[in-house]
Every structure is written in structure tokens, then in C-alpha cells.
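Entry for the shared binder. Reason: the reviewer on the internal report wants the predicted structure included alongside the sequence.
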Amino acid sequence: MADYGRDMHYLLLCLSLLSVYQLCSSANYYVGVGIGDVTGPSADINMMGYANPGQISHGIHMREFSRAFIFANTPTSDRVVFVSIDACWAPGAVKQEVVKQLKALFGNIYTERNVVISGTHTHSGSGGFSQYLLYDITAFGFNHQGYQALVDGVIQSIKQAHSNLKPADIYLNVGQLLDSNINRSPTAYLNNPAAERAQYDYDVDKNITVLKIVDGAGVGMGMISWFAVHCTSMNNTNQLLSSDNKGYASQLFEKEMNGAAHPGQGPFVAAFAQSNLGDVSPNTQGPHCLDSGNPCDRDTSTCHGKNELCVAFGPGKDMFESTEIIGNNQFLKALDLYNSANFKLNGPVDFRHTYVDMPKQNVTLTDGSKVQLCKPAMGYSFAAGTTDGPGAFDFKQGSNSSSPIWNFVRDLIKAPTAQQVKCHSPKPILLDTGEITLPYLWQPQIVDHQILRVGEFVIIAVPGEFSTMAGRRMRNTVYSTLVGKGFSENTTTVIAGLANEYSDYITTFEEYQIQRYEGASTIYGPHTLEAHLQSYTLLSTQMADGQPSPLGPDPPNMIGKQISFVPGVIFDTAPFGKHFGSVLVDAQPSYTQGSTVSVTFVSANPRNNLKTNDTFLTVEHKTNNGSWVVDYTDSYWQTRFYWIRTSTILGESEAKITWDIPADQALGTYRIQHYGTSKSLFGQLTPFVGNSREFSISGSFSRRTAFSVLLM
């Protein structure tokens, strides 16, 4: 009983000290951070981004995460939530379900009006998660497993952030990052007014914006960075799920702050969020012809008239090294800005949000005339793809005219009305998506427009990919509106792209005339940007005036209507004489630092169990007492999990696991384990584990040679 009383006294003392700390803290805000696994199916599902039907997932390069940040002035005041997810974009259907579950958990603390979910735009994530048909066609329909992984991971990250809300200070810093992005549609950019272009040094944004978050004691909690660059360092031949350059940057930053914690498990959360990336490529060597190595045609991005031969490559010798370089560049600059940040944010936490039916928007132009936006449609140059991932069938970027043959094919699906053709001019319509309703809507018409405020910092959450100049105009418009209404001139505005829904691209009117890929994918017509500027000006005015924003029309919820043609896993079997987890190709007895270990196991379909917050592999080292400690999982850059189907009829498959041994890896004894789940013909799921032989790691040849020289 005495021990119980002493324990209670100690507990009450701790609670009292915590209360005093919170009351006495001089911190300006309350902040919570959280992280959750959103990795989708690593087998059989088309990957989202390149619209390449042959790019089917067959393993994991790096796991993908949701990173959540909650901001408030006090524990009981209104909050805003910013979430960055390693996904091609943040689907509206995912946000709807997330908000629904958050309301069930927390009441009206978190709603569609104060929660922003923004995608990093990795092109190496599982596809089929949109409720709009066009985006799921190459995935052969909706993939509920991938959709649910996104929902669950976002919820997990927000719940974690909610539970650790604490006094915090937020510091802002802005710098410049060079050698990490180029404009992939320079001819369209050059069509913007010369006077406007003269205001900027580059044809892409080089600015990188960092929020540094520390608790009341000055201990780091989190970091958010915004930098405009496509996550297309991993190209359209990749079949491993990957968070690409931004995910790698997050992993590097979190390792720097969390030490030995595995990815996704440390207390410090670092998000490398997306911005106005529409015409921005990470492939800094630029586009060249695959057959000759010569530069591509500048206007059409073709080689000898063929679009498929024109491809841009990154700074590295292959896509993995390019991802590493661009990710590391972002990490190093963000870390520098984080460490040197000294502008402390102060002021209200606020938000404004509305739903907008885009085709119904009337825009007042500079000459006073009014125009109405168009129903969605995709142009010919959309089918040409980009230099990051070319399309097929010899479509060309910059197409302002149509083809009778392709118009015939188009009209078999839906012929555009004369009004649509006129509205979208000079875009030649290839897919009249806005006038197709079977089996359900092909592209969104009602989208979120939203801004968040944390003191002098304003996040402009946009539902698509703004081009460089479109993003600049948006940032400047919101800034001038807010400052003109009394906000501090120290206010900083940033674009958070691919947020809350995906309405493709938003280019300037001038860029639209050139009809590069981005203009052809500006789905509401040539005045799409003007409508966005008009809407966000109104939201900014309402925020500055303290007035509420209208709810707007409800977006559809079509999850119950979704169709899919991807069959489920029927069954798995092991080859005769083998069992699940059997080693087919074992590790060598020994390796040197800097070399690669490869082990192949009898496996089963990864769709049986996504291993959420878990792993399909471990690399373990043996301690002095004979126990094993996990050094790496499938979340790490250094490991790769390849899933290989060897017999569709028999349901046989293999897992190849590789580990690139770091040059400074500790010497000792190691093993690799593979974890999986098999499915019987009767539907029973059974977990299994496979083990490689034990192997040793010794010093690298160069190090051993140098040591030998010292002994001579």
C-alpha cells in the first residue's frame, strides 16, 4: 500500500509539473506531428502517374507514408491540419472518408474545412484509388485495397498528431535550391509576357520553404519543406513501390533527427511536400533522343517525328542514383534552412474552404468581358505524355490540330459538342470526359479550394498541378489580397499542390495556347487559372475580413459505384519439395562493405497482407549473446523487395531480397529474413517466415588494403 501511495504521489507531481509547464510555456502555438504507413499493394496493381498499362507493381523500393501536422493557438481553439502523403495526389474520396472517420472520433474538431491532404506526386505508388474513372483506366478499375491503405495511414498519422499536441514554436525560412529541377515545357513558359518573365531569374521556382517546429523546450518535433519538382526520378520502367526523391529526402531528414529509429517509427516527422510542379522535372540532364543522344525537337519533344524516343534523364547514371541525388539535394538544403531558421511565426491559426463547381464558374477578364469555364476535356497532347514519361501512338506535344482517324476513335466513346470544341479552343479534344457519365463521372467537376493560416504563413491548397508561372500568379494574388487587407508584409504564401482532389493541370492562359502536355491537361479550358485566382482572392478576402466562406456544392461520393477488373488472389502454392519461405538462392558465406547481398525465397502474393506498419523483410545482425537485432526493413533505401510470379496457373511466386551494404556498416554476422502470407485454395491465410544462412561482413577491399599498407 505504501508503494501504491508513493506511486500516486509521483504521478500527481508529474501531472502538476506538466500543467505548470504548459501554462508557463512561452511557446506561440500548440503543434502535434504524426506518421502513418500508406503503402499499397506491392503486386499486380498498375502504378499511378505515367498511365503506362505495363507498369505493374512487383515489390517495394521504399515504403510510403502519411505525415500529419496539427496547428492551434491553444489546446481548445480552432485547429488546422496539414497532411503530406507519399501518393500521386490526395484523392477527394480519401479526404471524404478521412473526415468522416475523424468526425466519428473527435466530433467537429476536424472537418473538410480545416484539413488539407496534399500528395507528393510520386509516380511509383499503387494506382486505382480515385473515384473518377479516367484515372483508374490503366489500373483496370478501382483498387479498394490501395484506397483503404491511404485512408488508414492518413487517419493513423492524424490520430498520432492529435495525441501528442504540445506547446511549440514555429520558425520560417526560405532559401534557394539549384541543380535540382528544370522546366520540361520551356516553349510554353516563353509564351508568358516578357515583362512578367523578367521578374524572375529562372523558368522554374528555385525557392524552397521550410517550417521548423520545436516544442516548448526547444527540442525538434517536425519540419515541412515545400519545393516544386516532380517525383519522376523513378521512371516508367520502375515496378517497385517508391516514394521517389521527396520520400528519400524525408527518410534522410528523419534519420538525422531520430537516430537509429526505423523509418516511420521515430518521434520527429519531416515532410517534403509538393508545390507548383506542373512543368517542373527532376531530370536535370534534359530530354535527349534515345537513338542518337541528340537533343529532342524543342517544340514537339520528338525525335525524327517520334515522341516515344524523346526522354529526359536525371543527374545520375540510372533512376536510382537520380532519385538519390535529387532527394539528397532537397534534404541538405532543408536541413541548412532548418538549422538557420530564426523568423518566429506569431499570430492566429485560421482557415477558409469552399467547394467550387468549376464548369459553372464565370470569369471576368481584364477587358471586362465575362466567360464561363468548360466541362472537363483532355487534348491531343495529353496522349503524348511528357519528356519524363512519353506516351504512345506518335502523339506530339504542341498539337493544335486534330486527326480524322483519332477523332473517329474519340467519337466512338463520345463526340464533343460544338460548344465544348469552342470552349476549349485552341485545344483539340481527344477525350470529352466532362460529357461522359457512364458508368460514372470520368473527371471531377466539384473541387476543394482552401487556404490555411499559421501566423504570417499561408498555405494555398490547390487541387491540381499548377505550372511555375500559374503558381507565381496565385502566390502573388493571395499575398497582395491579404496584405492589402491588413496582413503583415512579412506574410509568406506557398502553394501546396495536388491537395484534396486532382483536377489535372492549371496553366496560364498564355501557356494554354501552346498546347504542350500541361495545357492539353488543363481540363476546364483556357481560363482555368483565372477562375482559381478569382476564387482564392475571395477566400483570402473572407479570411482577412473575418467572414465565413460558403460551403459550396457537395462533391459526389461514388465509392459505392466503383468497378474493377483486377481479380483477387485465388491461391498460392509452393513448388514440389519446397515450402513457403524456403531459400532458393542463398546468401554467400561472406561479403565486404559496399557490396550487395541477394537472397531468393519461395513466396506468396503480397496482396494477401500488405504488412502495413510492418515489413516483408529484415536484415538482422547477431549480438554477442546470440540474439538477433533488426538493422533494416523494406522501408529503407538500402533494401529492395522484388516479387516475381513464376506460375500463374499454379500460384507460385518468389521473393528476391537485396541489401546494398553501406560502406560503413558494422562488421559482424548477419542474416536476411522474408515475411509473407500465403492463401490456400479455401481462402485460409497463413503467415510464414524464411531465413537466409548466416553470413559475415568484413571490411571493404580498399580499407583492408590501406590497413595492410599501414602494417608494412
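Summary line for the report: The longest strand covers residues 668-679.
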